[in-house]
Design brief:
mainly alpha
């Protein structure tokens, strides 16, 4: 159990680091580098790049955050934050799925994410 928890915490930490690098590169105008960092981070964490994640059906996609058949909201929120930063319609739709599933488990979600979910950008991704 401890090894499983440590593995999940490492995955979350990886995604947070990727998000920081993506944000930094986008702020610096290095959008291609940001996309490359995002792809590599996703491959490292989930063994799938962004394009693969964005073509997954909902059930398969949600299983990414369900190691050992148990949904992990912390991992889901970290991935949702990354997908929101990507900003494409398929990425935003999947971010919504992850946030909603996390909220349903009673997990903490940032105020920013909650506002996004209830705002026009989040509502556009309701399907």
């Amino acid at each position: 159990m401890v090894l499983h928890r440590d593995f999940l915490m490492r995955q979350i930490q990886q995604l947070v680091q990727v998000l920081l690098q993506v944000l930094f590169n986008k702020q610096e105008g290095n959008h291609e580098v940001a996309r490359s960092v995002l792809d590599e981070g996703l491959k490292s964490t989930f063994k799938a790049d962004l394009n693969e994640l964005l073509t997954m059906e909902r059930k398969t996609f949600m299983e990414l955050c369900s190691p050992s058949n148990s949904f992990h909201a912390g991992l889901a929120v970290a991935l949702a934050d990354l997908l929101r930063e990507e900003g494409t319609d398929p990425a935003l739709q999947r971010a919504r799925w992850l946030y909603e599933a996390s909220i349903a488990t009673g997990a903490a979600v940032s105020l920013d994410a909650l506002e996004w979910l209830s705002g026009p950008e989040g509502k556009d991704q309701a399907s």
